[in-house]
Structures are given as structure tokens and as C-alpha cells.
């Protein structure tokens, strides 16, 4: 009888903060994965509720769970970064504290990843009680394979909770900037080298509730949030575009040139730069706006607005 090759270790990295309400359900769904070669690394960001007690209880029962608690609150980006750096696996999957995973999530993503560096799946939205909201992430924005880092210029829809990626990507991402989310940064850096793959099946039940650090960004949620000032948003947009330009490797000649133009026209306002920014958006609109559910006319209109706007 031929031996079955040993599957590589997948490190499931979870960042927790005051998440005791749904935590056990998510831990159970990870422990029930059909992919058995896993470790679970959980970093708690100095929770003030019962989260740490829940983690201690699970860690005492399951030797593949490693837990650590921060002495000071780091915030979710740095907390995830810390957890990823503690991972021992050749592959890493990120986990929120309040979702529920399909039992074959890791197996299906591993089989589909192949020689690429990062893959993510679709997700089904559920409410606080775990009931389906009748909507998937792909119903809100286009979920696609990102074949070009220009597809990340103004945003992306490849969430960390649905990702599986090779550990080598982590080294190119360090240190994680605070200008963008950790999952955006992972996707952008990966897309600078090879395609970010999309698996269309819904492998995560993505819970929506009032305590989400980052939710599905529904219209109702937008109305509840207080928007930062226009000046603040513009400055962040300038810094963000400069960050993407600097990170894009020089061998990506076309993308580097486009990001240089956009970075320059974001920093310096004026008729000539505003015109150049708008024309650049128009030329590359199908890539830049690929994840947005916009018609051809709406894409053109969006680009025309970039003559006077740099925040969105």
C-alpha cells in the first residue's frame, strides 16, 4: 500500500479582543476541520471580558492550540501581525473570533492553491444568532482573482477571514503598515508577484453584529459610523498611494509607472496633475475598478470625478 504524502502544517492565526460571546463556536469549527495538520495560534489583545478564560479552557484540552495575551493593547492589525510571526506552519489562514468555518474550508483552499501564493473564498453573511442573511460577500462587491496589483489601487474585496497563503508572503509584508488593513496589504503584496486566486464557494459564515472590528460594510453600518474629516481622508489617500508606489517592485514596469503617476498627482494638485490623474484612471479603469459592481458608464463617471477627488 502506497504511503499518503504528509500534508504541510497550516497555522490558523486568530486575533481576539472582547470576543467571548461567539468565540467557542468559532474555535469548535476550526477544531472540526477535515484538514488535520493544523495548529491554532491565538493572540489576545488584552481583553476585559471572559475571552481569556475561554482560551485557557480550550488550550488546556487541545495541545495544538497556543495562546498568548498582550500586556498592552496593540490594535487588530498589529495583533494579527504578532500572531502571524508566531506561526510555525508553511501555510497561514487568518481567523476572526466571531465567525464559523465550513468544515472543509482548509482542505478545499489547500487543494485549490496549487503553486500560487494566496487564495481566498467567498463567504456567507450570518446574523448574531448564526442565521443566514441571504447574502454573500460576492453579492456586495465582485469577488475575483486579482491578477494585477493595479486592481488594489483604490481597494479590494479579498478579506483576511477567507484567506490561505504561504508563509513566504509574510516576510515580504513585514512590517505591516497602519495605513491599510493587514489583509489588504497581504493581497497587494501577493498581487505584485503572482495572482491572488479566488475560490467561489462560501467557506466562511461571516457574522455581522454591532461589535465587528470590520464588517461587510453594509449601507446601514455606514450610516452609523462618523466619517473623518475631508482633510484627514485626503491626507490618508496621499500617504496610501505613496505606500503602494514604494512597495511595488521595479520589475513590474507598467504598474510601477502607473502608481508613480498617481502618487505624484495625489501629492500635487493643479490642472495638469488633475487631468493626468483622471486620464490615468480612465485608461486603467477596468483593472482599478474590477472589484466594484459598476456599469461601464459608472466606471467612466467615477474616473471623471477623480479630476477633483482623491478620496473615495
Describe this protein's structure.
It is a single chain. The chain has 312 residues and is of the alpha/beta class. It has 2 domains: 10-223, Spore Coat Polysaccharide Biosynthesis Protein SpsA, Chain A; 226-305, no CATH class. It has 13 helices and 9 strands. Strands 1, 2, 3, 4, 5, 6, 7, 8 and 9 form a 9-stranded mixed beta sheet that branches. Helix 2 links the parallel strand 2 (38-44) and strand 3. Helix 9 packs antiparallel against helix 10, helix 10 packs antiparallel against helix 11 (271-283) and helix 11 (271-283) runs antiparallel to helix 13 (296-305). The longest helix has 18 residues, at 230-247. The protein starts with 9 loop residues before the first strand and ends in a 7-residue tail after the last helix. The model is unreliable at 218-223 (pLDDT under 50).
SSE blueprint:
Blueprint lengths: L9 E7 L3 H12 L6 E7 L6 H11 L3 E5 L6 H11 L4 E5 L4 E2 L3 H9 L4 E9 L5 E5 H4 L22 E4 L1 H6 L8 H10 L4 E12 L11 H6 L5 H18 L5 H15 L3 H13 L1 H4 L7 H10 L7
Parallel strand pairs: 1-2, 1-4, 2-3, 6-9
Antiparallel strand pairs: 4-8, 5-9, 6-7, 6-8
Helix pairs in contact: 1-2, 9-10, 10-11, 11-13
Write out key terms for the chains shown:
9 strands, Spore Coat Polysaccharide Biosynthesis Protein SpsA, Chain A, globular, 41% helix, 312 residues, alpha/beta, nine-stranded mixed sheet
Termini separation comes to 59 Å
Query: How many structural domains in the coordinates?
Result: 2
Mean pLDDT: 94
Number of helices: 13
Helical proportion, percent range: 40-55%
* Largest sheet entry: 9 strands, mixed
Whole-angstrom Rg: 20 Å
Stretches where pLDDT falls below 50 for ≥5 residues?
218-223
- Estimated share of beta-strand residues: 15-25%
Q: CATH architecture of the largest domain, please?
A: Alpha-Beta Complex
Query: How many strand units?
Result: 9
SSE pattern: EHEHEHEEHEEHEHHEHHHHHH
Tell me the quaternary state.
single chain
CATH domain class name of the largest domain: Alpha Beta
What is the fold named in CATH at topology level of the largest domain?
Spore Coat Polysaccharide Biosynthesis Protein SpsA, Chain A
Going by helix content, strand content and strand pairing, the class is: alpha/beta
CATH superfamily of the largest domain: Spore Coat Polysaccharide Biosynthesis Protein SpsA, Chain A
Global morphology: globular
